[in-house]
Task: inverse folding
């Protein structure tokens, strides 16, 4: 599929912070959330701190592999990965690994604004041609879909949190900047997360 | 806790025994010919969750997530693969104090036939020293179990990664056929 413009497919253009708040409200079972660097984890931070949140400070592209690792370690806990289109494009191969392994407790949410927003909004390949949902499907992540609007997002997230995965949901988002900014102490972030997951007391 | 003795005393059975002894059960890797007997043994042992990844830094991310989720992880790769992970080590593993085990099958020395492998091999140790990562080049079978056991204990106690470079002197390496 070749896209003429970023929103040529008629999907609603949504807002990352609004959807992140929406996602957090739907988490009722101490689900783990791993958020990719930059605006993705800034908005998760601003949506309200949770002990089960992990905020990356580097290693661009590794939010989904990290979340997959958490999912392997805690198969009874649902794990959510939040990642931007630029970061996912850096590590597309992880979708193939997840498609091969089929973890049942992993939900991947991709915020696609078609831009490397934080570095100056240079266009990503997803702005031109790459359909990340089609890539995920082709990798064997059968439950992959674009979300049409906020209500559709809520419904699909609820379904993914209660059913077996893996699932990938992608949302077209605007280029609004993030609302907040995370703490920058990696030891504390890691320690808080491990306490939130019940690993350390 | 006593070291589990391997059944046949090969380098790969000793690595497997050390991983099992210290409960490093999540083992993502990028394949390498020299590692094949270890990869086969891991695949045949239900204690381990071991599988191929598309890139070495992906394996680092998975093993790091597993640690934060309460399971211990080790990653396996070749020298050229190590050259792709300094950013993940510098921005995720080291600052996060992750006791990750990294096994690197060493190519690029002792009979290397590919100049690219020889060059990339020379980048491994400078990167490790620059990042201050504990590392051991293992050349002797009779030292392998001791180095692994003590280093794994140290990694866990000090919450720091450790890299094991498996020399061709230990594994036999990859032989130039032509």
Result:
């Amino acid at each position: 599929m070749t896209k003429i413009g970023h929103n040529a497919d008629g999907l609603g253009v949504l807002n990352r912070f609004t959807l992140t708040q929406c996602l957090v409200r739907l988490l009722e079972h101490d689900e783990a959330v791993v958020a990719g660097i930059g605006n993705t984890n800034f908005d998760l931070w601003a949506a309200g701190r949770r002990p089960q949140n992990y905020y990356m400070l580097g290693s661009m592209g590794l939010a989904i592999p990290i979340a997959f690792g958490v999912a392997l370690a805690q198969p009874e806990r649902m794990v959510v990965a939040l990642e931007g289109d630029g970061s996912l494009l850096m590590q597309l191969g992880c979708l193939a690994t997840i498609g091969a392994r089929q973890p049942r407790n992993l939900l991947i949410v991709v915020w696609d604004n078609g831009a490397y927003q934080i570095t100056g909004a240079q266009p990503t390949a997803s702005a031109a041609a790459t359909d990340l949902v089609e890539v995920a499907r082709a990798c064997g992540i059968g439950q992959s879909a674009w979300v049409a609007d906020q209500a559709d997002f809520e419904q699909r997230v609820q379904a993914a949190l209660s059913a077996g995965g893996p699932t990938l949901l992608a949302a077209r988002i605007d280029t609004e900047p993030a609302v907040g900014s995370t703490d920058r102490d990696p030891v504390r972030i890691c320690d808080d997360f491990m306490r939130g997951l019940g690993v350390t007391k | 806790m006593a070291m589990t003795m391997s059944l046949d005393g090969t380098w790969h059975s000793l690595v497997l025994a050390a991983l099992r002894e210290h409960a490093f059960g999540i083992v993502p890797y990028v394949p390498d010919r020299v590692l094949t007997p270890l990869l086969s043994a891991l695949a045949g042992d239900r204690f381990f969750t071991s599988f191929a990844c598309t890139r070495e830094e992906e394996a680092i991310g998975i093993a790091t997530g597993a640690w934060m989720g309460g399971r211990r992880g080790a990653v396996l790769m070749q020298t050229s693969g190590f050259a792709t992970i300094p950013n993940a080590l510098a921005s995720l593993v080291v600052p996060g104090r992750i006791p990750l085990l990294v096994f690197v099958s060493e190519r690029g020395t002792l009979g290397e036939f590919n100049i690219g492998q020889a060059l990339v091999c020379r980048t491994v140790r400078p990167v490790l020293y620059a990042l201050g990562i504990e590392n051991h080049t293992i050349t002797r079978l009779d030292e392998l179990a001791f180095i692994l056991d003590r280093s794994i204990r140290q990694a866990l106690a000090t919450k720091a990664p450790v890299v094991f470079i498996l020399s061709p002197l230990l594994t036999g390496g990859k032989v130039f056929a032509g």
